Amino acid sequence: MPHSTRLSQPPNTKKATTTAAPPPDGPPEQVPDGAPVDECAVDEAAADTASETSGSTGGDAVGGWRDRNPAVARAVGRTVTALAAVLVLSALLLPNQLTRLTPGEFLRIPVEGIFGAALLLLLPPKARRVAAVVAGVGLGLRTLLNCLDMGFYSVLARPFDPVLDWILFDDAESFLKDSIGQAGAIGAVLGVVLLVLALLVLMTLAVVRLTRLLVRHSAVATRTTLVLGTAWITCAALGVQLAGVPVAAANTADLVQDSAERLRASLADQQVFAKEAHVDAFRDTPPDQLLTGLRGKDVIFTFIESYGRSAIADPAMASQVDAVLKDGTKRLRKAGFASRSAWLTSPTAGGGSWLAHSTFMSGLWIKNQQRYRTVTSSDRMPLTDAFKRSGAWRTAGIMPGVTRSWPEGKFYGLDHVYDTHHLGYKGPQFSWSRVPDQYSLSAFERLEHGKRHDKPLMSEIILVSSHNPWAPIPKMIGWDELGDGSVYDAIKKAGKDPKEVWKDPAQVRNEYRRAIQYSLHSLISYMEKYGNKNTVLVFLGDHQPVPTVTGENASRDVPVALVAHDPAVLDRISGWNWQNGLKPGPKTPVWRMDTFRDRFLTAFGPRPGETKEEAKGGTPGRSGH
């Protein structure tokens, strides 16, 4: 910020004519003899002039660039001031959603600017300087939060949580590293840091410069503030709109209030949720009464990344995805399997898959990171852990998206977790997705399902090929051709460049649809080849894709299906009123995802009047293929 320069008057002078330093925006203002002098105005005007001349003369205004080029200097000064005004006005009117980023949003009167100008005109010099700096920094931070909201709305269909979402930047950096490489990720992070610093500095300098302008032209500024204030009140009272947008704007105040409310809610939610997590109707269920209706079955829970209602309901994608589901239903029926399907409402959209996974398994609504940390460090019994606690199943997890330590495996009751380093994959990385879905399922067969065990197997499998950015996409090949994954080198080279795909929303939706088709093909083909009379599959989407695919205000519903060879398994859920086949219909029941655990444990628990021996029915063990 430019330093103030004190203009001293000669001693022993009774009367003097004071001339303000020539401002960059017009001729100097003459102060008549005997008139009181606003020393701050004089100081700030001189500082403004000095800061402009010091660029080429090291602070010596005599014979400087400004004196040699007065017309150019005035033009530059006015341009800088105009840019400062545009920057501040844009920040005051900036919305927090990309869909609202229209010209009409910036043709309004911001009430915060009116109050801010009035306050700066009323404050004494020292307080005014401090207030200008604080206002500049605050406006820069508010602009930064608005930009974060835009990003979160675009990806997660919700605003940024200033308390709980900071940890997601680490995941974002990992996503960039996986998608564009480490060098690209480092460059992107450095670029963001520099932009944030530049925003804060430029916004502060802009507010300080405009404050000096207000002080130098205080009479005009006061009249203008009164006129704009009256106009704002009138427009607000009459509801005047321009292009469907209210002329009287209170963007910053509304957004600050909204952020404060979210902050308060986030802090209060922690205590409320801790009490909810402590209540578990199934925690004390005796092991021999857990999941008695599935004894002897190999149960597989599979999440398909970003598999949402839009993949089935959006006319641009529905016909192709529906064809896969209908054909899959027929193929599985031919292999002896029947299926039922419905909808679940996910707590997240666009991303945050782990929130959906934990909601589905724990029976609690995990809508943010704080809830996730709370539940995964509690003694809550997730659905997968119920299999382990029963003592009747071996448990395993196939997690190709996990690249580092994953202590949550203990919470989920998984005896063995196979992350990306344990699947034996030697092929190329498909953008963020490290391992193609077909290979993950093949590794599951090789490492667990196809082996002989003394107990049936319960598994959780995460399929990630349909993860954003959806290019390049693997393709189905023969199961005996997969090897160590090197065969995918040529497939990746023939795929599309994600940077080119994301230039066109229509291409993004097309590639998303193709990725979902691939994931569904992989799972259906696996069941055809490796499923047997004791296999039970529950598969579902974790959340809807980003709004680029779904459009704004899309539902958070995801498809869920249960596939079994034994009719007795599906008989247990006859009361659910799910639809036959892999494709849920428009009138099929829609449940919140957190209700599934209790419904499942109830449906497959002991039935009224069932003896303990009957409850323990089923095959005591299984053999590999």
TrEMBL record:
InterPro entries: Alkaline_phosphatase_core_sf. It comes from the Bacteria. The keyword Membrane applies. The chain crosses the membrane at residues 75-94, 106-123, 130-156, 185-208, 220-243. Residues 10-20 have a biased composition (Low complexity). The keyword Transmembrane helix applies. Keywords: Membrane, Transmembrane, Transmembrane helix. Residues 1-66, 602-625 are annotated as: Disordered. Residues 21-30 have a biased composition (Pro residues). This is Sulfatase. It comes from Streptomyces platensis.
